[in-house]
Structure formats: C-alpha cells, structure tokens
Design goal:
This is Polymer-forming cytoskeletal protein. It comes from Bacillus yunxiaonensis. It is built from one helix and 19 strands. The chain is mainly β. It has a domain of about 100 residues. It is elongated.
Length: about 230
Amino acid sequence: MKNTMETRANHAREKLNVFGSKSFSQPVIAESVRVKGVASFKKDVQTNEFSIIGDCTIRGSLVAESFSNSGTCKIEGVSQINEIKNTGSCKLGKIQAKHIHSSGTLSIKEDVCAETLTVQGAVRVNGNLQVKKIEIGFIAPSELQNVEGDIITLAPSRKFISLTSFIPGIKKRIACKTIKGNDITLSKTDVSIVSGRHIKIGPDCNVDEVEYSGTLHVDPSASVGKITQL
C-alpha cells in the first residue's frame, strides 16, 4: 500500500532545489529540499534533508532526518526531525526530535519532545518542554513554560555578546513557570517552582519555591522564597 502523502503528491522528486520564488500546493516527497530563495509549502513535506538559506513557510507538517535553517522559517504543523540546526529565525509548531541546536532565534508555539536541546541565542516555548538534556545560553530575553528533563542548565551565554546588551532597559534573562529535573543549574532566571535532586540557584535568580531531595546551593544575590527538602 502506497504512502498517503505519496499518492497525493503531484511531483515527487529525488532532489528539490528552490531558487527565486516558488509555491507548492500539494504534498512534497523528495530525497532533499534546498531553499535558496522564497518557498511556500501549503501541505506536508517529507524528505531526508531540508535546508534553508532564504525564506520558507510550511503550512503542513515536516518529516525529515535533518533540518538546517540559516534564513527565516515558519512551520505550522508537527515537525518530526532527527536533528535540527538553526542559525537564523525559526518559528515552529510542535516538535518531536532527537537533537535541537539553535544559535539564532527559536520560537516554538506548542510542545517539544527531544533528547537534547542546545541554545546559544534567544528562545521562546509556549508549550511544555520535555528534553533529557537542556543547555540554554540566552543572549536576549527568553521565555519557557513548563520545563522537564534530566540535566537542565539555564544561564546567559558566554560565547556571544548580544547587541541588546547595549540597549538601555533590555536585560538578558529567562522566565519559566516550572522547572523539574535531576540536576538543575540556573542563572538570571525567574521561575515560580523549581523541583529536583541537585539544584544550583545562581546569581540574580528569582525563585518563588524550591523543592529538592539531594543538594541545594543558593547564590547570595539570588532571591528564593519557600524551600522544602523532600
């Protein structure tokens, strides 16, 4: 039985290269998709390799082994990708991935499920973030909702100097509702509840409540409310 996407696709190509401006109204299946101009996909896309240098919009879902974006990208459907690399501006819907790397601007509308998330840039996740290993070095104001993982590190990036650092009134901070993990390290983080085994509350953090079962270290410059040892 043929794949549903395959039977509906008008043009299934081995390699799809987009130069200039082009729109696709039907589902696309290809060995690789490379966008070096402006591309609009109104349906689902399935490929091994998807790369963007220009501007790309996918109204449906994306299934791919690898995805790289160094331009501007928006995917409205579910992204099922083995490895994501973003150095540009990327807006995604719901993500199921193994590894996510971003050194640009990453905005995710729904839930994220992955093995690793590494960020050196700005990030915003409106859904739940469930990742085994999370390492976020933010260079601009960032925001998460409910974060859950094994190893979680949230701190200003030491690798990049953000232009916003020189703009009065804009501070490099990250805000969360809840953080739950085994080993948690925070700096310049505003969060309601932090729960875990080993927790380090670093400089300039604002935490309403902490629950820990192993060790807890609180920097003198941090503000912490209720502390409960489990």
